Amino acid sequence: MTPSRSRPYLLAAPAIVLLLGFFLAPMLQLVRVSLYEGGGRSGFGIGGGGFYKPNTWTLRAYHTLLGEAYFREVWTFTVLLGVGVAGITLAIAYPLSLYVHRLPPKAKTLALTAVVLPKLANVLVLIYGLELLLSNSGPVNGLLVGLGAVSEPLTLYHNLLGVLIGETYLILPYAVLVLVAALDRIDPTLLPAARGLGAGPLRAFWRVTVPLSAPGIALAALLSLIWALGAFTGPVLLGGPQELTLAVEVQRQTFENINWPRGAATAVLMLVTLAACLALYQAPARVLRRWRGGP
């Protein structure tokens, strides 16, 4: 290999080492632990017990999980939560992104700063702020009661509604940034051209803006789905006993039940679910490229 050809690989070497050392190696360790028996002494045990039995290769953790109705319920809830959060996030983020996209440059910068600013705070601080807003004596219930919409305060968290509000609030800035970037890439002369050819405002929007921003919509939906599939803080602090996600189950099995193989197997199955979502995201693009005759 000539020096000119090897130069890109040398430049990428630090990133490759970082990926192998800090991402691939822990994932392989996760898979390894998921194939062990629980209990015993691992060198990390507490007292006379332990987290797992090394070198006791078995698929028992996976067999137990997949055979339990409880795990299937948690998995189903996690997936449905991801789909719900993705849908709600898009429903809010797309109109907001359209508004931000059409602002003058200085106003757009201020708007994007306002959108991103909450992400500079710790997620626990944000969740605590939401609890104050959604509490029975908080401003949201105060406004609803004051307007006569409800006769008594509503329970807005420690339930599914609280989880949906919390996760949507946490992922919304990322979705807005992705969608604004997608809208900014659209040629600004296309909408006037469509209007000049007789299309009304709504028809021009559906036939020009939406299709051209579709990659951004898909990416924002994927980010929202992945975020919700790994949701932990929101379900724990804003949800109730029924709002258990796969991430919460990993924590319970690993730190409460001290069953590392089961916790690791749950994490592996969560990663498989995330990989399936990524594959579904990539499939339409691959089909379109093949249909167009591309590689």
Can you tell me about this structure?
There is one protein chain. By secondary structure, this protein is mainly α. It folds into two domains: 30-67 and 259-295, no CATH class; 78-240, MetI-like fold, CATH 1.10.3720.10. Helices cover 73% and strands 1% of the residues. The chain is built from 13 helices and two strands, in the order αββαααααααααααα. It has helices at 3-34, 60-67, 69-101, 105-116, 123-134, 139-146, 160-184, 190-196, 201-212, 214-229, 233-238, 246-256, 260-291; strands at 37-38, 52-53. It has a two-stranded antiparallel ribbon with strand order 1-2. Helix 3 (69-101) runs antiparallel to helix 10 (214-229), helix 7 (160-184) runs antiparallel to helix 10 and helix 8 (190-196) runs antiparallel to helix 9 (201-212). The chain is globular and about 70 Å long. The model is unreliable at 41-49 (pLDDT under 50).
SSE series: HEEHHHHHHHHHHHH
CATH-scheme architecture of the largest domain: Orthogonal Bundle
Number of helices: 13
Q: Low-confidence stretches at least 5 residues in length (pLDDT < 50)?
A: 41-49
Major sheet attributes: 2 strands, antiparallel
> What is the assigned CATH homologous superfamily of the largest domain?
MetI-like
Approximate shape: globular
Oligomer classification: single chain
Count of domains? 2
Radius of gyration: 24 Å
Classify the beta-strand content into a percent band.
under 5%
Mean pLDDT: 85
